[in-house]
């Protein structure tokens, strides 16, 4: 407050606003502050807290210990609030009183200033009038000036006293108002304490659990809003510098801010809510990829990923820090659930980078979690969120294999660490770029969490469509997808990769082992717990095994990825004997009506019908799907049989009926035999197709070489007209030399079955009861032809081919490879016939070929010769490669000799077919100094 000088002004003229300055102060500001206090009082009085009704309301809707604490705190907060609020009206009135006094004082001072200025004007006029009067002596002017000056000074003194009075009265008003305001302040904040908003909050809410939580949450949200504004500037590219420029600095600044509050769940959720899952992904793409593309070190990107990854874990966690009030805890739980839904919904979204690269939401989430783990944050996502995210990531990668866009592979086209199966901003790209593997690692060691993850169904996907269905047509689960995942990645590649390695293969085995101790569920017959998961896994193993055995590379992938599950399948199958026995006596109801689990005396166990059980046993029996030879069942099947024999031994010792054990073993043996025969039959088909293709190719090449363009046209015409260029003689040769693995496998199955019967009989003490029981079990498996039926069918096939060849030769429409060979041989190499019994000896190469083709192979030539079994030697090979062909006769026996340079399909040397009439009695081959594998003696 400015004070006027009590000393009179001696200057003849001085402005009134200088002599009597206006009192300082803002009348409008004082009244605005008073109105603000009044509004605050009105708002406060309208709340249930200030009215004291909050506590009773809480009691009406909330019970328990926390509710009692909240009610008591509400009453205390209401009392504090009323104590503060009730002093505000007095402070408001004091501000208005002082504002009115200040306004009146200003008006009075302005009046005094005008009177002051009037005195100066009057004095100046008096001096002018005196100067105009005639005064020869000057006495009149001097006396008049003295009188005018005296009047001016007297007036100034009077005005100064009035001014001092106005100022003093205003001071008194100010002291009274300041006292009232000080009283309100002292009521709120203890005397001697610096007054601030924080100090007032401490007085009102200090020590109150719920109130302090609300205040702290507000501060965290304000910080999140500020930091999200910086993040949005980075997303929009407001500072497009490089690693050493503004953008790099802003990235570092954002990383530091997030890192300083990464443990604050309110801040984390507010930040995530401001950005959203889509904004978070775009931030990584805009900031992270730009830094890598500019040549900057990836350390900045990794630091940002680690900070934001920890932020995601904090924001989605349902565990609040110790001491968090129940209200804030409930808000955090609700916010975590909403953020989890948003994250899962965005996992299949593809985000574009400024440089054209793209990444799916699943891949980016994997990068965030990898960054958090790399920075030492060993916390995990909540179990429910982890399994939902894993399921969504699985559906996303299945959709990638069915999407027409082939540019996106395994979730990303970004290659910050190229040359790996996956891309990643971290060193171990092959694993840290695998989002599903990273998400599986988020699960702890709780067996129930592992079981729930394996049973989690995959979400809908418009692109994936029917690929999300299992063998029964139900929705695929995470466990089933992990079994078949290597197929998904095979389908996503340009060509088959036999060296494919997926870390999730080991994850599946770990999860299954961990989940094995989880509760199996109730015994109400419904699909429950791990029993249902085991059934699904077994069905998927059966399905993938059938697929894998179609190709050598997929067989190798299966042996590494899925075959290690077979020992577990054996244990599960051995533990569900009651359900197996029931299935063998129950007609198959079909997949839609079939449950995945059913109760047994030991708890819920998987339920599979006989068709599905056959597939599972077949997967255990077949360990490789290629090779033209019969095979024994795989080691997993042998283990299953040993378990069953041990059970039979226990049944005998306990005096129980072993008939069920024999029925089971008969069914298992029949199922294994069917799977092995199916593979053998497929190999026979492939072998016959290969030989037929060789014959087709030989005719096509010969026709083109002889006829040029006209020959090509003729070949095309033959294909259009007849569908093939093979002759009946070609089909006869194929029938003679093609493999017969099915017969070999059937005979080996018969021998294995006989051995099994003997082992069971040794345990039970007799064969008479074993054979009918095993036959009963085998009848529930697939039907198989006998070895004799296969031999008869093969002989019929050869006879039909021979008859077709005979008819073709009689019609003169066929040509043979040996006919073409005769034309190629020189004079010294032409065939000759020995003089003995010329009627029975072949006279020409064509005649020899005809006899060979029309003859019936003996069992030794058909069964024991490895050269014949491989199907590698055909007459066309002789025609193309032979340098010497001769027929030597003697004693009614014709020897067809062929000298081969080099080798034909790995076989080299001198070949000799010995004909006796119309029957091939033996076949020799020379290789590596041996005849039919026996060293040649000197």
From TrEMBL:
Origin species, per record, is Terrabacter carboxydivorans
Query: Which residues lie in Polar residues bias regions?
Result: 854-863
Q: Which top-level group of life is the source organism from?
A: Bacteria
Protein name (Swiss-Prot/TrEMBL):
DUF222 domain-containing protein
Region (Disordered) residue ranges read 828-869
